[in-house]
Specification:
Layout lengths: L2 E5 L3 E13 L2 E10 L7 E5 L3 E5 L1 H6 L2 E2 L5 H16 L4 E3 L5 H17 L1
Parallel strand pairs: 2-7
Antiparallel strand pairs: 1-2, 2-3, 2-6, 3-4, 4-5
């Protein structure tokens, strides 16, 4: 679920929350508020290879590390993925932690989708 903000009282801009992690020797972008499947414990993610996919953010965060910006490889791959996401239209807001708030937003979105069907 994207957050909308107003800029200069005229334009509405979608903001996508994201958490970047070092996972299985690659950088992964976790979109903690984007629904992954019809189960609330999944969200969307993105990696350079494979691109969009659903994931269990608890699993990924437990089995990954924060990006080490002192590590040249991790820092470079982070920047590449960040720029790739920006180039396909994402307006990102980075978070360092996954919280219950993210889970609750996904669950609410799923409840809204169920009411539409």
């Amino acid at each position: 679920m994207n957050t909308k903000i107003r800029r200069f009282n005229t334009t509405v801009v979608d903001i996508t929350p994201v958490i970047f992690r070092w996972f299985e020797n690659e950088v992964i972008a976790i979109f903690p508020e984007e629904v992954g499947t019809n189960q609330p414990h999944t969200c969307m993610s993105y990696m350079h290879l494979g691109q969009h996919s659903s994931c269990n953010p608890d699993y990924v965060i437990t089995n990954s590390k924060p990006i080490d910006f002192n590590n040249v490889e991790q820092s470079y791959l982070y920047r590449c993925l960040y720029e790739e996401l920006k180039s396909i239209g994402y307006n990102l807001k980075e978070y360092s932690r996954y919280t219950k708030h993210h889970y609750d937003k996904r669950k609410f979105t799923l409840q809204q989708l169920e009411q539409l069907s």
